[in-house]
Structure formats: C-alpha cells, structure tokens
From TrEMBL, chain A:
Keyword Transcription regulation: no
Organism, scientific name: Maylandia zebra (zebra mbuna)
Protein name per its UniProtKB record: Sodium/hydrogen exchanger
Residue ranges, compositional bias (Polar residues): 746-768
Family to which the UniProt record says this protein belongs: Belongs to the monovalent cation:proton antiporter 1 (CPA1) transporter (TC 2.A.36) family.
UniProt KW keywords: Antiport, Cell membrane, Ion transport, Membrane, Sodium, Sodium transport, Transmembrane, Transmembrane helix, Transport
Residues covered by the Cation/H+ exchanger transmembrane domain: 102-495
Transmembrane segments: 27-44, 93-111, 117-137, 149-170, 182-205, 248-270, 291-312, 332-354, 375-398, 404-425, 445-466, 472-495
Membrane topology, from the record: Multi-pass membrane protein
Disordered: annotated segments: 711-839
NCBIfam families cross-referenced by the UniProt entry: b_cpa1
From TrEMBL, chain B:
Keywords: Calcium, Cell membrane, Cell projection, Cytoplasm, Differentiation, Lipoprotein, Membrane, Metal-binding, Myristate, Nucleus, Protein kinase inhibitor
SUPFAM superfamilies: EF-hand
GO cellular component: cytoplasm; lamellipodium; nucleus; ruffle membrane
Gene Ontology molecular functions: calcium ion binding; protein kinase inhibitor activity
Top-level taxon of the source organism: Eukaryota
Lineage per the UniProt record: Eukaryota, Metazoa, Chordata, Craniata, Vertebrata
GO biological process: cell differentiation
Membrane topology term: Lipid-anchor
Origin species: Maylandia zebra (zebra mbuna)
Protein name per its UniProtKB record: Calcineurin B homologous protein 3
Record's subcellular location: Cell projection, Lamellipodium; Cell projection, Ruffle membrane; Cytoplasm; Membrane
Protein family: Belongs to the calcineurin regulatory subunit family. CHP subfamily.
EF-hand domain sequence ranges: 115-150
InterPro entries linked: CHP3, EF-hand-dom_pair, EF_Hand_1_Ca_BS, EF_hand_dom
Length: 839, 226
C-alpha cells in the first residue's frame, strides 16, 4: 500500500523529469505545474507514511536481533527472504528534505519561465505564495508540516549559508567607502528600531482593551528585536535593476547584512533577559558591554580564520579539486567557533569571507573560483528559498493567535519607527558624508525596510517558555507578509517614479579601472599635500602594508598585481572564451563582405605558382600548426584529478601573443593587405588599422559600417540591439583567423625572445592567413588552380615557418629596419593628416 | 607661527577667489589651508616645486610627478593661460585646490555641470602634458606606465599593451562620432559628449561618472583638520 502510494508519484516525477528536458518551452509550464502537484503528493504521502511504517521497522529489526537462540524462527525468516523490502524511516529525513528543496527549486524555475512576473513581483512574494498554496493543500488533508526548521537547524545550517553569500559577494570598495554609514545604520538603526518598537508596544500592552497585559517589557523588546531585522533581498534586486546610486545600494546591502548580526545578538540577549525574573540596572550595562564584546570578538575570529584560509590556499596548487572546500570549511569553522564562545557568529563569518576573498581568489585557479562562487550562491538561495517557502506553509498550517490591536500596532510601529529612524539618523550622519543622502535616498532607505527570512526564522525558533509565542509568530508573519507583498511590489514603481539618483555600475572597462586608480592616487596625493589624513590616506597605507607583507605571506605568486592588470587579464580571458564559443560554432559561415573584398584585392596582387615540394611542405605545416578546435581525444586522468585546461591556456597565450604583436609598430606601406587582427574590446574585425584606412579612403562608408560593427561583449554589456547580418558573418571568421594562424613554434619564440623573428613574422602570418583556409583546405590540395588567395595564404605560411627556423630568406627587408622603439613611425600613433586641428 | 599679518591683509582677496570659484569654504577653513601652505613653504610667500617634492608622504605615490606638476600648471588657474609656473602663491594654491571641492546639494544643475567639467579638465590636464588639447597614445601610455610602476613586477610591455587596449577601447566607443579618430581624443569631443550623448560612450564621460563617486570621495578641502 505504502509502496504504491509513494512510488507511483515518484515514477511519474521521473518520467516527467525526463520529458521536461525534451519538451518545448510551451510545455514546460504545464510540466512544471504537474510536477508541483506530484511533489506535493509525494510530500503528503511521505509525511503520512511515517506513521504506519515505523511499527514495521520496529517489528523487523528486533525480530532478528534478540532471537538468536531460537534458530528455527530465524531460519524461517531467512527462508522467506524478502524479495522486496522498504525501510522508509531510514531515509525519511534526508528524503523529505531533498523533496522540499526540489519542490522549492521547481517553483523557482517555474516563475522564471515568465520573466515579466519576476520583474514586477519579487521572488520572495512568489515563493511565499507557493508556500501558501502548498500549506493550504496540506491543511485541507490535515497534515502537519515537517518539523524541520528547529532553532539548531536554522542557526547551524541555514543562517550561515545566507550570510556567507552576502559577505562573500559584498562589493568591497563601495563598502569600505561607506563603512561608517553602513555601521551607523546597521547598529544604531537596529537598536533604535528594536528599542523604539519595543517600548511603544509595551505602552500599547498597558491598554486593557487589547487584552495583552501579560506581555512584559522584556518580551516586547525580544519581539521588536526580531522584527527589526530588515532583509531587503527584493529591494536589492530592484535597486540593481534600476541601478540606483552606489551609496544607496551599498548602505541597504550593508545594513541588511550587519543588522542580522545585531539582531541575533539582541535576540540572544533579550531571550536571556526575558527569562530573568528581575532586571537590575547593572544588567543593562553588562548587556551593553557584552554587545561590544560579542561584535568585536566575532570580527576578530573572522579575520583570524580568513587569514588562515588564505594561507592554506597558498599550498593547494597541486590539489585543485579540493580548493573550494577550504573556503567553505574555514568560514563555517569561523562560524562554529564563534558560536562556541557565544560571540557573534554572523560577524565572524562575514569578516572571514571579506578577508579571505581577495587572497583566495588570487590563489585558486579560475575554475575553483567559479565553483566557489556558484556553490555559495546556490547554497544561499536554497536556504532562503526554503525559509520563504516554509513561511508560506507555516502561515496556513499552524494555529495562530490573532490579536487585532497588537498586530496592527506592530505593523504601524514597524513602519513609523523605521521611517523616523532613517530620518533622524540621516540628519546625524549627513554632515560627515561627502555626498549627503537627499530626501529621495532617505525614502528609498526607509521604504526598503522589508522584513524577511531571518525575522521569520528567529520568531519561529523562539523558545517555548515565552508565553505568547503564538502571538509573536503571527505578528511576525503579518509584518513580513505586509512588507514583502505591499512594499516589495510597490517599491519598483515608486523608485522609478521619484527618480532616485542613478549611477552606471558594473561597467568593466580598462579605462574605468585606470581612471579610478588615477583618481585615487591623485586624491591620496592631494591629501598628503594638505597634510590631511582620511580615507585615501588610510587606503594608501593599507595597500602598502598589504603589498609588502600580507601578500608575501598569503599569496603564492606574491608579486603585487595592479588591479588594472587583473582586469585586463580578466577581460582577455573572457574574450578568449567568447572566441572559442563562436568560432567552433560558425566555422562553415559564409565569407563576409570584408573577406571577399580582400580576396579580390589580393588576387590581383599575387600571382605566384607553387611547386610540388612546396605543397608538401604546406601540408606538413598546416597539419602541424592548425589549431584543432574540434579535437576530441580524452586525456586519461586519475580519479580525483580534474580535466586539465591546457587548451584554454594555450588560447590565452596565443591571444596575448596576438595582441602584443598586433600592437607592434610596422609601416603601413610594407604591407598593403588589410589586416584582420582583432583586439579585445574593439569592434570585431575592425582593427584600428582598417578603420584608419577606411576612414582615409571612404570616409562616409566608414562611419556607417563602423556603427554597425561592434564587439559582442560590449554589445551584451550595453544591451544593444541585435547585430546586423553582415557583422554576424564577419565576427566568427575573423576570430577564427586569429585563433588559427599562429603556429605553436611562433608562440614559443614569442615568449622566449621578444625581439627578432617574432616581429617579422607578424605581418605575413597574421594578415594573410585568413579564414577561408580551413574551409577550402581540401580543394586547394586537389587542384592547383584553386583560388589564388588560398595559395597565397599557404605560401605565406610557409614563409613564416622559414623565418621561425631562422633562415634569413624571409621577404620584405623593410621590416628589418623597424624596431619596436620606433613608435613614431607607426602611422597609427601619429596624427592622421586629414585630421583638422581642433584648436 | 604663520604670517598672520600677510594673511589678514590678503584675506579679502582670498575670499574673492573663493567667491569666484563658488568654493564653499568658511574663513576658518581658508585659515587652515593657509597654515598648511605656510608649513609647506617654510614661511615663504611662494611655494616651489622642491617644497612639494620634499613631502615625505608623497614619496610612494606613483603619479607624484603629475600631481606636483598640476599645481604649477597655469591651465589649472581658471584663467585661460598656458604654460607652467615656477612658484605659486597661496592664491594659486587655493585655485588648484578648488578643483577638489564637493558639489553641495543646493547647487543647481548648471553649477554641477560646471564643476564636473572643471574636475574633468583638471584630470585631462594631468594627461595632456604637451597642452595641445589632445591626449595622444604616448601620453596615455606614460600615465599608465607610471600607475603600474608601483608594482615593480610589471614589464613595460604589459603596461603598454594595457594602455593600447584602453585607448582602443576609447576608439571603439567613439564610433558614432564623426570627429572621432583612432588613438586620440580631443577635449572638445569629450565635452560635447558629456553634454549631449549618453554618458558612457566615451572615456571622459566615464570619468564624469566616476566623478559622482569622486565627489563622494573628494576630500573636502575646506574640512582640513590639521
């Protein structure tokens, strides 16, 4: 009976999952809804199943063990060796947890099918709604929600995940720029809220009409501490989408992070105090002292563990597979140890993440870095999803103690004190800020005070000794639902309506980085000049300390790397990835206009015949030096080793070499063939030279084509409309060219000896080996009369090889005259003649 | 300590400067700046390049040279003058400092634009060493190389390729402009773009965006504590 109950839906689910992958988008939603139903059924059966199944297990287990003496009975049992057994209780808890997580994740997939939903309704609302529906179903069949969310589970497993995510992804620079304001709002603001709400609620409790006179001050404070934890995930999403100014964003971000810490401290303090019969004035002072010890102690632990983690990753270069583990283990360790000493574990894990992030990400490999980020994101989103989901379920299924007066006043006070707090605190902090918060910012801050997962979890895990726990849970749920639904949905239109100051964030270009650094250095310099010590001074000092000491200890490759270089490398890596993506997909793409025109041009220029020996050479060269994108050989590797990424690295090296070479000076006259180099962060297929030429010869044309062609990464960054067909065809072709033509020997030479052959080779190998080569490879060998262009390519390739072997038979003696230092000779560095003077 | 008499004598002049540049400082703050000025110059009326180069805290700054040069650059004096000075008095010192003022919240849109432009101009002048209104690739390279010079491990090759890449980035973002030409950016261009175009389209508008931060970051000259 039980088997059938559980397995039928499971089977259906599996089938559906299978279909899910193959179905069209249209069906996905239907499948999704079906899945929901199935999952719900499973959950219901699962939780129902535990009642009858327990006795079964109980009878089976003892029947075997103690009856050793009675052989016959045991043999009887053996004879009836069960063909099919089931031990549900054994797997019950992990099984149900898995199903819950799956269900919540399906819900997430479900409402991302329609993007418009998540734009206008925050995800937390949707999750709560689904939770409410599930709760309603469970309620209708009289089911209890699984008792998964206990105090220990929340504090030991779920909270650290959420906090680790926010700590790790904290934007460091803006955070430290606004650190004062962040702490001001997080600490003082939370204190203000909890004390304000607590005392006003206590005043309300004195009114006999509400019938809540038994709630004393301590309990009120405890409750108000719970509901003063703001958790504006939804708001942050909105802020990110409309890209409000950085200051506002980071203050909301930091506030929600650190006020969790403050709230938990307050919660622990008040829940201790709430059980004390009498509160002496001394206890208040002890409480204040404890507050600071808890906070600062947490920070100290966090920094300690952060540095240890960074130091550990210094030695993990041989065991890349377990690298990501250290991040999680150390931050969790920091959390647990802080918990052990009853100091703020949230502070510990945040500071740990902040401290180690910088060093760890330099030590670990690119892949581990990605893994770390993804896993952190995933865990946090699971944890949060579960809490919101659970909140929906609990809202329906538990008994509530509804007290109109108390709950309405809670709502009112929560709103009023938040607004007042922001207003007053901003007035105090504004004189210390260079950019003060204006009224709009303050509105955004105040209105962004949503309550969320942490509040609910804290309320739900209140000790049972609190007399009015039911009322507190109800009130907390009411506040959360009110703020999440009403404010969460309305904040986007409001923010857009009042037009809060906006900035253009997330724009990663080298120029931005360079100018940021330039300005920072300028400011530091000016401050030094004025003899004033402030933020820039301290930043300067810290960077010096960091570069001199910390990096030497913590980072394997301890050469200090400027952030400009780091960004440069990152962009280049991105670029290489993109090239690989597009190039492998579009090999058979039609030749573009540009390459066609080039062919015409070159065919008139080059009329050379080839010998059979040459052709053989060509064949050799091509087979040796072509880059094999589609190579599919699988390298054998140990069980615990990761697939090696030497190929990617090779591409990167090639790109480095390419760029470096392309930037070398060469005279325009010596190579008339239009070049097809590609720089990253440049319009594809449009090297500067070609722009230059085009601009000189047909100026108007240039304007049009250029505006058409833009580099895809920039396109995606700026969200420009779809590319035109011509540029589309062009991009992969040119890319392919840059990827393929560089022989490996070339790369090596390039790396070892920066002068000499490498310079000569550039023009020929580079400009001439163009995309058509791989495509028409066969035809060029079949008959000698194939396109001259191809032959030319091949020939030039040959020339390249010869130069590589240091045979001075290379053509174009003009190149030899050039050295890299003669930048003035490069026409691109000079001002073009047609340039009208601007002065 | 400092030459109070001289200071008082010229106070009205300084206040005038302050008014001209709508440099929101009180007399108290000017006094602080004056004290620092005296300290730097060793109680002289003029300050020279050597005085600034002697500041120990400035030694580690990779762009120290540019910063010091900026103080002696006539272009930063709010007068349409070109060239460089050998010594500057307190007035000129104030003028240069006025580039770093924050925009106060009551400022009108026009004022904000003006201030932003001035800040931009200051930065531009730091790049444009030969004062032809155009940043050439070489000038840009110099700056980048110097920025990177602090972390010694970087070869000049890398610095160069970064500068080139950055310049190309500028060139590539300038596509729509008929005035654009590879590897150079004229100041006029940038000003046009700030006013008329989308902000991120070119390098200087990028800087102007960063300038919003810069304002937040900008040390308030007036608020000198020492």
């Amino acid at each position: 009976m039980l088997t059938a109950l559980i397995f039928t839906p499971v089977w259906i689910t599996v089938r559906l999952l299978f279909n899910f992958c193959t179905m069209d988008l249209v069906f996905i939603r239907q499948a999704g809804t079906l899945l929901f139903i199935c999952m719900i059924l499973i959950l219901l059966h699962g939780s129902r199943g535990e009642i009858p199944s327990k006795p079964i297990a109980a009878t089976i287990l003892p029947s075997v063990k103690p009856n050793d003496g009675v052989q016959t009975y045991a043999e009887d049992q053996k004879n009836n060796l069960p063909v099919f057994t089931m031990n549900y209780p054994r797997i019950q808890i992990p099984f149900e947890i898995t199903l819950w997580v799956l269900l919540a994740s399906f819900a997430k997939i479900g409402f991302h099918v329609y993007h418009k939903i998540t734009i206008w309704v925050p995800e937390s609302c949707l999750l709560i709604s689904i939770g409410l529906i599930v709760g309603a179903i469970m309620h209708s069949v009289h089911e209890e929600p699984p008792a998964v969310l206990t105090s220990n589970v929340f504090f030991l497993y779920m909270l650290p995940l959420i906090v680790l995510e926010s700590g790790y992804f904290m934007p460091t620079r803006p955070f430290f720029e606004n650190i004062g304001t962040v702490f001001w709002f997080a600490v003082v603001g939370t204190l203000w809220n909890s004390i304000g709400i607590g005392i006003s609620l206590f005043a309300i409790c004195q009114i006999p009409a509400f019938g809540v006179q038994d709630i004393n001050l301590q309990e009120n404070l405890l409750f108000s501490a719970i509901i003063s934890a703001v958790d504006p995930v939804a708001v942050l999403n909105v802020f990110e989408d409309v890209s409000v100014n950085e200051q506002l964003y980071i203050v909301v971000f930091g506030e929600c992070l650190f006020n969790d810490a403050v709230t938990v401290v307050l919660y622990n303090m008040f829940s201790f105090v709430a059980e004390m019969p009498v509160v002496e004035p001394v206890d208040v002072f002890i409480g204040v002292a404890r507050f600071f010890i808890v906070g600062l102690g947490g920070m100290a632990f966090g920094i300690l563990f952060g540095f240890v983690a960074a130091f550990t990753t210094r030695f993990t270069s041989k065991v890349r597979e377990i690298e990501p583990l250290f991040v999680f283990m150390y931050s969790y360790l920091a959390y647990l140890v802080a918990e052990l000493f009853a100091i703020s574990s949230i502070m510990a894990i945040i500071t740990c993440a902040l401290t180690m992030k910088y060093y760890v990400e330099e030590n670990v490999s690119q892949r581990s870095c990605t893994t770390i980020r993804h896993v952190i994101k995933m865990l946090a989103s699971i944890s949060e999803t579960l809490i919101f989901f659970f909140l929906g379920v609990v809202t329906i299924t538990t008994d509530h103690e509804w007290n109109w007066g108390y709950i309405l006043f809670t709502l009112l006070f929560a709103f009023v004190w938040r607004g007042l707090g922001i207003l007053v605190l901003t007035q105090i902090i504004n004189p210390f800020r260079t950019i003060p918060f204006n009224m709009k910012d303050q509105f955004g801050l105040a209105y962004g005070g949503l309550r969320g997962a942490v509040s609910f979890a804290l309320a739900f895990t209140l000790p049972d000794t609190i007399g009015r726990k039911q009322l507190f849970v109800t009130a907390t749920i009411a506040v959360i639902l009110f703020t999440v639904f009403l404010q969460g949905i309305s904040i986007r239109p409001l923010i857009e309506f009042i037009n809060v100051r906006r900035t253009n964030r997330n724009l990663e270009t080298i120029n931005v980085e360079i100018h940021c650094r330039l300005m920072e250095h300028t400011m530091a310099g000016i401050e030094d000049l004025c003899g004033q010590w402030s933020r820039f001074y301290w930043k300067d000092k810290f960077m010096k300390f960091n570069n001199r000491i910390l990096r030497k200890i913590l980072i394997r490759d301890s050469r200090a790397e400027s952030s400009i270089v780091a960004l440069y490398k990152k962009l280049e890596l991105q670029n290489a990835m993109e090239i690989l993506d597009t190039a492998s997909g579009d090999i058979s793409a039609a030749p573009s206009i540009v390459s066609l025109s080039e062919e015409k041009k070159s065919s008139s220029k080059l009329q050379k015949k080839f010998l059979a020996a040459d052709l053989r050479n060509i064949h050799d060269i091509l087979s040796k030096n072509m880059y094999k994108i589609r190579e599919r050989t699988v390298a054998y590797r140990g069980k615990h080793a990761l697939p090696n990424d030497s190929q990617t690295r090779e591409i990167l090296i090639r790109r480095h070499a390419t760029i470096r070479r392309s930037l070398r000076p060469r005279s325009c006259q010596s190579s008339n063939v239009p070049r097809t180099h590609k720089y990253f962060s440049l319009p594809a297929g449009k090297s500067l030279e070609s722009r230059f030429d085009a601009a000189r010869w047909h100026y108007t044309d240039d304007h049009e084509t250029l505006s058409e062609v833009a580099y895809p990464s920039q396109r995606s960054r700026f969200g420009k409309p779809a590319r035109s067909s011509s540029s589309k065809a062009m991009i992969p072709l040119h890319r392919l060219g840059t990827l393929e033509e560089v022989p490996s020997t070339d790369v090596l030479n390039e790396e070892s000896s920066s002068t000499g052959e490498g310079v000569f080779r550039t023009n020929s190998s580079y400009s001439d080996s163009r995309v058509p080569r791989p495509r028409r490879l066969n035809s060029s060998f079949d008959d000698n009369n194939s396109s001259v262009d191809d032959l030319r390519n091949v020939h030039e390739e040959d020339g390249v090889e010869q130069v590589g072997q240091r045979q001075p038979s290379s053509p174009a003696p003009g190149w030899e005259a050039e050295s890299r230092e003669t930048t003035a000779r490069n026409p691109l560095l000079r001002r073009p003649q047609w340039n009208p003077k601007k002065k | 300590m400092y030459n109070y008499k001289h200071y008082c004598k010229n106070l009205h002049k300084y206040i005038h400067i302050v008014d001209v540049c709508f440099f929101t400082v009180s007399q108290e703050q000017i006094k602080n700046l004056y004290q620092r000025f005296q300290q730097l110059s060793g109680n002289h009326e003029k300050i020279s390049r050597d005085d600034l180069e002697r500041i120990p805290a400035l030694n580690n700054n990779p762009i120290r040279k540019q910063i010091i040069t900026a103080f002696f650059d006539k272009r930063n004096q709010h007068q349409n003058d070109v060239g460089s000075l050998d010594e500057i008095g307190f007035e000129q010192f104030l003028m240069v400092m006025s580039h770093f003022r924050p925009v106060n919240s009551t400022a009108t849109e026009e004022e904000k634009v003006t201030v932003r432009k001035q800040k931009l101009r200051f930065l531009f002048n730091m790049h444009d060493t030969d004062n032809d209104g155009i940043i050439t690739l070489d000038e840009y390279r110099t700056v980048v190389e110097e920025l990177l010079s602090q972390s010694g491990a970087i070869e000049t090759e890398v610095a160069r390729s970064i500068a080139d890449a950055a310049m190309l980035e500028v060139a590539s973002t300038n596509v729509h402009s008929p005035h654009s030409r590879p590897r150079m950016i004229s100041m006029k261009e940038s000003h046009l773009s700030i006013l008329n175009r989308f902000r991120w389209i070119n390098i200087f508008s990028m800087m102007s965006i960063r300038f919003l931060d810069m304002n937040s970051a900008t040390m308030r000259c007036g608020k000198l504590s020492s």
